[in-house]
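Annex B. Sample input.
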Amino acid sequence: MRCKLVWLPVVLLLVDTIAGAQQVKKPFPQHTPYHKGTIKPNQISQGALDGLTLGFYRQWQKRYVKSGCKPGEYYIWFERKGKKQTVSEGQGYGMIITALMAGADPTAKAVYDGLFNFYRDHRNNHGYLMAWAQDRKCKSIDQSSATDGDMDIAYSLLLADRQWGSKGTINYLEEARRMIGAIMKYEINPKTYSVILSDAIEYDSKDYFDTRTSDFMPDHFKAFEKATGDKKWAKVVDRGYALFGYMEDTYSPDAGLVPDFIVGINEKPRPAPPRFLESKYDGKYNYNACRVPWRIATDYLMTGDKRAKVINDRIDHWIRETTNGIADNISAGYTLGGNDIKGRYFEALSFIGPFAVSAMVDQKNQKWLNAVWKYLVDFKLKDYDYYDNSIKLLNMIVMSGNYWGVQ
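Annex B, continued. Sample output.
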């Protein structure tokens, strides 16, 4: 009954916005055919999957998309105490979400262009990368970048080109190519082809050979190569998969997990020590690495890369086993050995959603996928923050079959 209550107003909304849908090339819902043998939640109809996703998008948009300090600008509200008002990570999430939801949302192009204008107004000293955080007066806190935010923003520009074309006031494709070039130049290590934490890290920095695992986005990198013709992106994909395989075999053979940060890539890759950058859990499967199953599974859904399935299969087997197939047993953090981090038994959507996307890679996960989908969508937006809710929405878009990509 709940699904019907959500879906009926959404049907009316889709009818009301058909004029907006006609202006885009890939209007939501898309129902993308993913790689052969992959699955979606099947305990409810496709219409209900679309309706729940669109309904949550409406809530997310109302809460997090805010007008910038200049006319024609929008940003994604960071929603945390302190002087940070927004971060490039959130800007990237918002730009991808908005491009994918166009058609069902007649304001999508205007909002997307406003998000782009805010990004463009906060580029850092390297020209096309975004300063990582802004305060309440929309001033950049410093000029360093956050690599994951830049990668999502660049990928969103490729989506925007596919969605609206690049002959309007913003040449999305050219902007994407310029940004991708800057990412390769300043945020990819030319010796190891690993992803650097930030453009502030240079060849003589002590953490030049360290990486954040959630910055490995192979489906993005394949799209970057296609858009620019730069073959070095294939090396980033190959080296990243090899690194993840080594880390799992060496440090997490049972669970298949990777830590938030990996250090010493040029010599002997290993989990980062406690408080390497963010917390005492930097060497564990924590609030950065929790995104890895989603990022890797998305590559398999879109491209069928067998290396992705190997990684996800190991994770899927472990998480089903350690939870006894009960979604409510998912914890907010694990050791690389696959044990719960002590005291982290609360619900975190940023952990739950990626495990659900990971389950999509194989039909044997159908019952588990159905259970985690239901568990995820039943949480209310008001009870969680920008990070959890944004990842939940991105994961719902993928699970509902509406992530179409540009590979």
